[in-house]
Every structure is written in structure tokens, then in C-alpha cells.
Amino acid sequence: xxxxxxxxxxxxxxxxxxxxxxxxxxxxxxxxxxxxxxxxxxxxxxxxxxxxxxxxxxxxxxxxxxxxxxxxxxxxxxxxxxxxxxxxxxxxxxxxxxxxxxxxxxxxxxxxxxxxxxxxxxxxxxxxxxxxxxxxxxxxxxxxxxxxxxxxxxxxxxxxxxxxxxxxxxxxxxxxxxxxxxxxxxxxxxxx
Length: 192
Prior knowledge:
By secondary structure, this protein is mainly alpha-helical.
């Protein structure tokens, strides 16, 4: 997956408009223009596509963290010069304040199942014995799960008031009064 593809998927999952995208970069002290964002979001086969570099990805995700969690006291973290799927996954986890169980549920939304041990390997330091590189498919499943979770939540919130407003009032139908019928056959009780 390219950084451009990841940016498009994150934007779609959280329904960010251009203004919100610009605000996220500004939170990371890296103001960008609407034209830059538009060029990064072009389709892969578009000749006007501009490569979204690793440092810009790190800045965008740092801005996303600040937006969701607030600004950290003291000096702000320096953006990574090189990113990979593990770093991107970790930054999304931090921004959304996700625990292992939350991530596993999000992955399951896109029918990707794994254990906590497999998941924790993605968040270890590269020199650790149990470190595992996050492959594109895992990150793709996670981003798809985010899309399913956050876009459906938004659609549900927007649809509920709209549905209530559009629901026509149903006329009350009175029940037809019918005589209680007697069964065709009754047992006769004999007195002794």
C-alpha cells in the first residue's frame, strides 16, 4: 500500500473534508494547501498525483493524534523520516485510544481474525524477538474495519433523526368487534 492509498482510506473512514485535513496538518505545525491535499488524493493512475511522502504521513498522523487526544505537554514528537505499516498502525491506535480487544473487533469487522499475541507483535520495537512486520493486507483489513465501524456509526446517527422525521403517522385502526364463537363440539358433563 502506498501512503497516498492509506491517506485516502483514512480520509474516507472518518469522512474528513479538505478543511479538516488542512486542520490536522496544522495541528502538527505543518500547514498545507487545499491543492496539495487534492494532489495527494488523486487516483493512482492520474498523472497529477503527487507522492505523499513518509514524513508527511507521520505529520498527518501526529496531527490526528493531537486532534483526538489533545496536545502533549512539553516538546512535540518529531515526525519520523521513514514510516512503515507498523508505525502507521501504532499511530492510528494511539489516536483512537484503542486497546487490543478493540483492534481485534475492528479487524473482525473485515473478517480478519488473529490472537492478541499476533497483534502485539506489530507494536513491539523492531529489535525485539517477537517483533513482526505488519503486512499490507493486515493494515488494509484494519482500515476497512475502521471504515465499517466509523462510517456506519455516522450513518446510524444521521439516519435515526431523519427516519423519525420522515415516518408518516399511521392512522389508528380500530379492532373489529366480533362475537365470541362457541366451539362446534362440547363435552357434556354428567351429574352423578
